[in-house]
Amino acid sequence: MQSFENLKKLVNEAEDDLKKGFGGNKAAKVRSRKKMQEIKAAAQQIREELLDAGDPADKKPDSAED
Fold this sequence. Notes:
The chain is mainly α. The protein has two helices and no strands. It has one domain. The chain is 74% helix and 0% strand.
């Protein structure tokens, strides 16, 4: 859940620059694009964590491989 909290924080941080960027502020557009890349990476991290967590029922005991 820590990764999700980080994602929410990044989205909140992006809001002001996004508004300014859509208003025509070029510097805010650059900051917004950079923040969107950070958001994309944070979302990917969450996806990976979910895949790694998986369903405990799907995991086989190590001794079953013998």
